[in-house]
UniProtKB/TrEMBL annotation:
UniProt-listed Enzyme Commission number(s): 2.3.2.31
Name of the molecule in the record: RBR-type E3 ubiquitin transferase
SMART domains found in the cross-reference section: IBR (SM00647)
Pathway in which the depicted protein is active: Protein modification; protein ubiquitination
Native source organism of the sequence: Gossypium darwinii (Darwin's cotton)
Family indicated by similarity: Belongs to the RBR family. Ariadne subfamily.
Keywords linked to the UniProt accession: Metal-binding, Repeat, Transferase, Ubl conjugation pathway, Zinc, Zinc-finger
Length: 583
């Protein structure tokens, strides 16, 4: 560990005197200024908001704008909504459930529509106030099987159209033996959640079939299925709730709109974006994530690689890759056409006159005449596209694997190492939470850093100032995170391997806690800057300047020059001490 890393991070966290990323006095965690002398001497400087706004941002960013719901919570909320509608509208709970299901469990929508035009709502939903036909007191013919049944073996919805119990349920009792076949209710439930909007079997009737009839007529298995569909509809049809997309997770998330932050962490520890249900991806927007995921899985990159690294056989047009050897190419059977790799002409027309085995005068002549210019340009563009994508994807995937490793290390730390460390260093486990917090911060920063590469891939090439500034900030974030990760992983190992208490453990605590705090502040600033589209970079290739910049968490700004050149030299000195082998 170099001497630059050995300063007391506790003081840095308390007073903001030491800038973790530059190694000099500056704001702890503030995004530093940037000067690119090659870009028309443009000065880059990220502007933090004033301290009051920054404090508000920090408190707001940690406010939970969602509620995690278990199955018990979902059932309770569903029952509360049904009871509320039943009480206000003076209808049965079964009818209230049908009404809420029709309006996607939107209580206010039900109120508005009902009091605006009750008759229209009743017709649309199928809640009839009185029967269409009177229910018989004696025998009557079933409208499905056309058999005659006494009234106690017939059932009808609110409309009064009678059908026998067997046709309703699909259950037939004969000589005290229960036979099952496809009845109206069982068929509808087997077809899926559409059974929740079941109507009377009579083709001309729109009367709704409620849960009371399902419970009275359906088999135990069908009742259980219907109950599952009913509770799932409360989540899936409600625009404010969604299921956690983690495999095997049964929790749902009730989201509060208007916060602007869609990141959600379920009780199962899975973090995802509530808007698109992909994994949490701040600071990248959902559209960019969708494009990036599609690009990673699409065949377009395979085609680009084929275009960049192969040529079609002049005869059969199959792509051929050349990785070594002379220019004499022979296509695979059954084609077996022999041709020149450079000019794609027949090999029989080649010889010493055309340049021999390793060159082709025809190709060079045609290239000078412009015959191959368009083809070569297209091939070169494809090659550059593949190289660019490979660059960003490799780093995206590397940070993802590093995050997965950090998650495994955190689990190992919590289950094994903390107990041992507590014994050897004579510290209660409650005093070792700073280690867990450091690892949680590493995991979060790896996620943010991973998605900055998707952000960089789609950053327009013609916006040179933004690209330079983005790459500078990304480099600073990488170096800072590597420093925190190294401290939490390698320096901590000394204390994990110790057989007795070490005197400098409290110094290590201060350092790791300070690194965690500074890294958190910097990454919060970075996320906000990228979400704002690096708006502080103006069209002339420079950032707006201020006399002083304040860190996100407050603190004084010291020793920062207005031009930002001093800041550049400091950070570059810091970067030289970072091992670049991992980047």
């Amino acid at each position: 560990m170099e001497s630059e890393d050995d300063f007391d991070m506790h003081d840095a966290n308390e007073s903001g005197e030491d800038d973790f990323y530059s190694g000099r006095d500056d704001d702890a965690g503030a995004i530093p200024t940037y000067d690119d002398s090659d870009a028309d001497d443009a000065d880059y400087e990220f502007i933090d908001n004033d301290s009051d706004d920054s404090v508000d941002y920090v408190s707001h960013s940690h406010q939970q704008n969602y509620t995690i719901l278990s199955e018990v919570d979902i059932r309770q909320r569903q029952e509360d909504d049904i009871t509320r509608i039943s009480t206000v509208l003076s209808i049965s709970k079964v009818e209230a459930g049908i009404l809420l299901r029709y309006y996607s469990w939107n209580v206010s929508k039900v109120h508005d529509e009902w009091f605006a035009d009750e008759e229209k709502v009743r017709r649309s939903v199928g809640l009839l106030e009185k029967p269409v036909v009177p229910f018989p007191d004696g025998e009557m013919i079933c409208g499905i099987c056309f058999e005659t049944y006494p009234y106690d073996l017939l059932h009808a919805a609110a409309c009064g159209h009678p059908f026998c119990n067997s046709c309703w349920s699909g259950l037939l009792c004969y000589s005290h033996t229960l036979f099952s076949y496809h009845g109206y209710i069982s068929t509808a439930i087997s077809d899926g959640p559409g059974c929740l909007m079941l109507r009377c079997p009579d083709p001309s009737c729109v009367a709704a079939v409620g849960q009371d009839m399902i419970n009275a007529l359906a088999s135990d298995e069908d009742r259980e299925k219907y109950s599952r569909y009913f509770i799932r509809s409360y989540v899936e049809d409600n625009r404010k709730t969604k299921w956690c997309p983690a495999p095997g997770c049964d929790y749902a998330v009730d989201f509060i709109f208007g916060s602007g932050n869609y990141d959600v962490t379920c009780r199962c520890s899975y973090s995802f974006c509530w808007n698109c249900t992909e994994e949490a991806h701040r600071p990248v927007d959902c559209d960019t994530v969708a494009r990036w995921i599609l690009k990673n899985s699409a065949e377009s990159e395979n085609m680009n690689w084929i275009l960049a690294n192969s040529k079609p056989c002049p005869k059969c047009k199959r792509p051929i890759e050349k990785n070594h050897g002379c220019m004499h190419m022979t296509c695979t059977p059954p084609c077996r056409f022999e041709f020149c790799w450079l000019c794609l002409g027949a090999w029989s027309e080649h010889g010493e006159v055309t340049g021999g085995y390793y060159a082709c005068n025809r190709y060079e002549t045609a290239k000078k005449e412009g015959t191959f210019d368009e083809e070569e340009k297209r091939r070169e563009m494809a090659k550059l596209s593949v190289e660019k994508y490979t660059h960003y994807y490799e780093r995206w995937a590397t940070n993802q694997s590093s995050r997965q490793k950090a998650l495994a290390d955190l689990q190992q730390m919590q289950s094994v190492h903390l107990e041992k460390l507590s014994e050897t260093q004579c510290q209660p486990e409650s005093q070792l939470k700073f280690i867990t917090e450091a690892w949680l911060q590493i995991i979060e920063c790896r996620r943010v850093l991973k998605w900055t590469y998707a952000y960089g891939y789609y950053l327009p090439e013609n916006e040179h100032a933004k690209r330079h500034f983005f790459e500078y900030l990304q480099g600073e974030a990488e170096s800072g995170l590597e420093r925190l990760h190294q401290c939490a992983e390698k320096e901590l190992q000394v204390y994990l391997n110790a057989e007795e208490q070490l005197k400098d453990f409290n110094e290590f605590r201060s350092k790791l806690a300070g690194l965690t705090s500074v890294t958190r502040n910097f990454f919060e600033n970075l996320v906000r800057a990228l979400e704002n589209g690096l708006s502080d970079v103006n069209s002339r290739g420079a950032c707006s300047r201020m006399g002083s910049s304040k860190s996100l968490g407050g603190g004084s700004s010291r020793g920062r020059s207005g031009k930002g050149k001093g800041s550049t030299s400091r950070s570059s000195g810091s970067n030289r001490n970072i091992d670049d082998s991992g980047h």
